[in-house]
Specification:
Layout: H1 6-25, H2 31-52, H3 54-63, H4 84-90, E1 105-109, E2 119-123, H5 128-139, E3 150-154, E4 169-173, H6 178-188, E5 192-195, H7 197-214, E6 219-222, H8 229-239, E7 242-249, E8 253-258, E9 264-266, E10 271-276, E11 289-296, E12 307-316, E13 328-335, E14 340-341, E15 347-348, H9 350-364, E16 368-377, E17 380-387, H10 394-407, E18 412-417, E19 432-434, H11 435-440
Parallel strand pairs: 3-4, 3-5, 5-6, 6-7, 16-19, 17-18
Antiparallel strand pairs: 1-2, 7-8, 8-9, 10-11, 11-12, 12-13, 14-15, 16-17
Length: 441
C-alpha cells in the first residue's frame, strides 16, 4: 500500500478528529442508536453500489431487488450474497465504482488463503474509519496517548507512519528474521504490539522471561492466524500484559476483537455482520453456528456487500460485563476450507482442532516448538511437529493415541517430526490444513 500524500493525510486526520469522540462512545450506545447508524450507512452504500458498481447492479437486478426495498436492516437478507470468486471475476471493471481515479486510491491485497489473491481498493481520502477503529481497538486495553508508539508485524506498511507526529506507528515485515524483530522492539520500546500468534511465540522464546517483561508493553493484539485462549493466556503471563485476539480481513477490515474481559465484540459501526446457513444461504438464529457474511459500511470505491467470508461463527447479543452494546461473536471456528470433514460426515472446525491439540500436548507433556495438523484424506491425519530439546520418541505414540481419543472416530493418525514448518507467502503460520477441502474448491 502506498503512503498518503500530505493532502490525503490532512483530510483523514481532520476526519479522525471530527469523529473521534462519537466513535469512542458508540460501542456503549443504546442498541436502537447503533441500528439507526447502521441502516443509514447501509442505505447509502447499497444505493451507491446499485448506481455505480456493475457487479451489484447486475446481481440485484437478476434477483429482483432494488435499494428502495431496503427499509429495515432485516431487509438485507433479501439481497444476494457475493463471494470472492464473484469479485475476482468482476475485478476491476465491474467491481469498482465507475469513474474512479485509481491514482487517488490505496490498494491492498488479501493474503489469499484459498490461493486466490484479491486486490482491495479504497479511496485514499476515505479511510479515516480504519484509523479510528485501530485507535479504539488499542485504547480499550490501556491509555493510548499521542506520543505512545505502536509497532505492527505485518506484510505491508500502513499509509501513514503518524498523524503529523502524533501516534507514531512502525512496520516490521512479517518475513523479517526473529532476531531483527526483537532488535526493533528493544529499540522502539512500543506501548502496543500487533502481530501473528506464531511471531509472538517466537519473540517470546527469543527474549526469554526477563526480556518479555522488560518490553513493558501495555497490550498485544494478535490476528490473522488461529490461536486458542489457553495459548494467549500463557503468552500474557510471559509478557506481563494482556494478549487479545482480533478478527479482521483485507476486504472487511476490522470485524471483531476481544474486549478486556475476553469476549469478542463486533465492530458494528465498521461492518454489518450476519451468520447464514452455508448451504441454504438463509440466516441462522442467534447462537447457532453459521457462515460469516459481512458488509463493510465505508468503502464506496470497491463495495463489499453481503460478502461471504468462508469463516464459521456464532453471533448474538452482548452479555458482557464490560458494558459494550456491540453484539458478540461467541465462537469463531476458522475457515470452512480448513475444517476436517470425517468419514462419518462430522466436521471438526479449526477452532476445535486447535483447542484439542493444545489440550493433548499439555496432557502428554510433549515438548514441541511448533505443530501443524494436515488432513490428507477423510480418514488420514498427519501431525507435523518441530520437536523441542526434551522431545522423546515415546511422545509420538502418546500424541497419536490422545488425538484419536479426542476425535472419537477411527482415523489413521501419524506423527511426523520435521525441522521446520514453512510459512505461507504472507508469512503466516498455518496450524490446520485440510487438503480434502482445499481440493474440493
Amino acid at each position: 500500500m502506498r503512503p498518503f500524500t500530505t493532502a490525503e493525510l490532512a483530510v483523514n486526520t481532520v476526519a479522525i478528529a471530527r469523529q473521534f469522540l462519537a466513535f469512542r462512545r458508540r460501542p456503549f450506545a443504546p442498541r436502537e442508536q447503533i441500528r439507526r447508524y447502521q441502516l443509514r450507512e447501509l442505505k447509502r452504500l447499497v444505493a451507491h453500489a446499485y448506481a455505480h458498481v456493475p457487479l451489484y447492479a447486475d446481481v440485484y437486478r437478476a434477483a429482483g431487488v432494488h435499494p428502495r426495498d431496503l427499509r429495515e436492516l432485516s431487509d438485507l437478507r433479501h439481497f444476494p450474497c457475493v463471494s470472492k470468486d464473484d469479485v475476482l471475476a468482476a475485478y476491476p471493471t465491474r467491481a469498482l465504482s465507475r469513474g474512479l481515479d485509481r491514482r487517488r486510491c490505496l490498494v491492498s491485497k488479501s493474503s489469499g488463503s484459498s490461493g486466490q489473491v484479491l486486490e482491495v481498493v479504497h479511496r485514499a481520502d476515505q479511510v479515516s474509519i480504519q484509523g479510528l477503529a485501530m485507535h479504539r481497538l488499542l485504547a480499550q486495553y490501556g491509555a493510548y496517548r499521542p506520543w505512545d508508539h505502536f509497532v505492527y508485524v505485518y506484510t505491508s506498511e500502513y499509509p501513514a507512519r503518524s498523524l503529523f507526529g502524533t501516534y507514531p506507528m512502525t512496520l516490521v515485515p512479517t518475513l523479517a528474521p526473529t532476531h531483527e524483530i526483537v532488535a526493533r522492539l528493544r529499540q522502539l520500546r512500543p506501548r502496543f504490539l500487533a502481530c501473528y500468534p506464531s511471531h509472538l511465540r517466537e519473540i517470546a522464546d527469543a527474549l526469554g522471561p526477563a526480556g518479555c517483561r522488560g518490553l513493558k508493553l501495555a497490550a498485544i493484539s494478535v490476528s490473522s492466524e488461529p490461536s486458542s485462549q489457553e495459548e494467549r493466556d500463557v503468552l500474557s503471563q510471559r509478557f506481563g500484559c494482556g494478549v487479545y485476539d482480533e478478527y479482521s480481513t483485507e476486504e472487511l477490515t476490522r470485524i471483531a476483537a476481544q474486549c478486556p474481559d475476553g469476549r469478542y465484540h463486533i465492530f458494528e459501526d465498521v461492518v454489518l455482520l450476519e451468520a447464514i446457513d452455508p448451504d441454504r444461504g438463509t440466516p441462522v438464529a442467534d447462537g447457532e453456528m453459521g457462515e460469516v457474511v459481512g458488509t463493510y459500511l465505508h468503502n464506496l470505491a470497491m463495495p463489499f456487500i453481503r460478502y461471504r467470508q468462508g469463516d464459521m461463527a456464532r453471533l448474538g447479543p452482548s452479555r458482557c460485563r464490560c458494558g459494550r452494546s456491540f453484539r458478540e461473536m461467541s465462537e469463531l471456528s476458522g475457515r470452512r476450507i480448513d475444517a476436517f470433514e470425517l468419514p462419518s460426515g462430522r466436521v471438526l472446525t479449526s477452532g476445535w482442532l486447535l483447542d484439542a491439540t493444545y489440550s493433548f500436548l499439555l496432557d502428554v507433556g510433549a515438548d514441541i516448538a511448533a505443530f501443524r495438523l494436515v488432513q490428507t484424506t477423510r480418514s488420514d491425519v498427519r501431525i507435523l511437529i518441530v520437536p523441542g530439546p526434551q522431545w522423546s520418541d515415546a511422545m509420538s505414540g502418546a500424541v497419536e493415541r490422545r488425538f484419536a481419543e479426542l476425535v472419537g472416530e477411527p482415523l489413521t493418525i501419524t506423527v511426523e517430526l520435521v525441522a521446520e514448518l514453512p510459512r505461507s507467502a504472507a508469512g503466516k503460520h498455518q496450524p490446520v490444513v485440510s487438503q480434502v477441502r482445499r481440493q474440493a474448491v
